[in-house]
Amino acid sequence: MRTALVLLLLLALAAVPGSLVPQQERQPAQAADFRRNNPDLSNVLDTLGVFNVFATPWFAAVYLLLFVSLAGCIVPRCGQYLRALRAHPPTAPRVLSRLPEHTYWIAPAADADDALRAAVDVLRGRRFRVAAGPGGDGWVAAEKGYLREAGNLVFHLALFGMLVALAIGNLFGTTGQKLILQGDGFTNTSTQYDDFTPGTLATGDDLEPFSFRLKSFHAAYQPTGPQRGTASAFEARISYTAAEGATPRDARVRVNEPLEVNGTKVFLVSHGYAPVVTVRDGKGDVAWKGPVAFLPQDNNLRSVGVVKAPDAVDAKGRPDQLGFTGLFLPTVQLDANGWVSTFPAPDDPVLVLTAYHGDLGMNSGIPQNVYQLDTERATQFRNADGTPYAKALRPGDRMTLPDGAGSLSFDGIRQWAGFQVARDPSNGTALWSSVAMGAGLCASLFVRRRRVWVRVRPHTGTDTSSGIEIEVAGLERGSSDRLGEEVGEIAAELRVRTLAACHDTSNSRTQERP
What we know:
Blueprint: H1 2-20, H2 28-37, H3 39-48, H4 57-86, E1 101-108, H5 112-125, E2 129-132, E3 138-144, H6 146-172, E4 174-181, E5 185-187, E6 195-198, E7 211-221, E8 231-241, E9 249-254, E10 259-261, E11 264-280, E12 286-291, E13 295-296, E14 303-309, E15 321-329, E16 332-335, E17 338-341, E18 350-358, E19 378-380, E20 390-393, E21 398-400, E22 407-423, H7 427-446, E23 450-458, E24 467-476, H8 482-512
Antiparallel strand pairs: 1-24, 2-3, 3-23, 4-6, 4-22, 5-7, 7-8, 8-9, 10-11, 11-12, 11-22, 13-14, 14-15, 15-18, 16-17, 18-19, 18-20, 21-22, 23-24
Helix pairs in contact: 1-4, 2-3, 4-6, 5-8, 6-7
């Protein structure tokens, strides 16, 4: 047991780096930023495997050792418990007065066998397991509270089940992230995800064949007071089909209220804005048109993003890629710190952009991050005085590039929602293991394991009257004030039954007299 506790502590400590350091598989962008900001520390952490803690050999070693230790702890204790269930309560000690709770009285004209039978009835009535000794100088032993040890075993078995569930989830579960623009749809295939993380033994070939479309997104914020700008409601209204060819159904997905389709859950995890823009090249032709998702940077949804037009041409018809990068501000304010947003709702939206042209690396064949613009070999447009060319646009405004290179118009705003699609085949096991752990813990904490003995012997006083001595004593594993009350209640009930038996015997003898 001590070894299991130490290993459980080590497992908890080993999991701490996984919550402090971004994990490569689940947070690749954050992990890349951490490496870039902490290059020296990252080399050490990479050597230790901290960027992928839960797949490291040392974490697996602690995990497996905990499995073995729990098994070595549970199996023999289950055998001991079964033997204890089959065993009779232990014989009454010779000197009951030494026990923590003890009471004694003399029952004149009482029969020892009647008193022992009464003791058995009283204790069984209280659901004790009872064993009785011979008459004359007899005793009754009783025991209760076996559920305490059963609860302890159930807790550890459930803990074992929880570890199994975690292992199954990591091996066969899948998790993916998807940003969906209002009006767009998603099909549950691995190629549709922005970020897809399968379990160690899972593939993207057995995903549930469902799909959904984001019909609308609604967000509400506190307009005034100290909580101004705090979200009061997030709701995504979607239309989904549970299988190919199935009838579409409407649903609402809220925070902590996911949509579940055949064991796969769709969680609403983020949202933001997508400015709708039209990019025209130097010939005046549309080089790109549509909404572009900008990623929030703070609680007021000050967002950053890029617009790319890889197929643009300049005024002479030569290929000239166009790129724009900047900010979207739902409620704009320009202060000493620059462009800021003062409220997350689009009350006064502004799109602040600067522009580049040339080789943006979009035809190199190397995959690019859609939210970043590669400007290493590109040229930034500049004003006549040499300052970077930039412009703040409100819906309906147009940004005309220098030298007739093209233009960008800000046509409107759409919203987007970020979803996490997760399938964990161990959810049921984890749930019932948690319930069993709670029930077992309650039983081990609140059920009292105690023993009670009743001894009956002939009275050996100096007077010549007949009678018996009755002792009731109790012993509890642990300490509790309730044991004294319970022993007193048993003694009182036994005293009443003994007196009733004496009274019945006396009446019987009176009726038998001639």
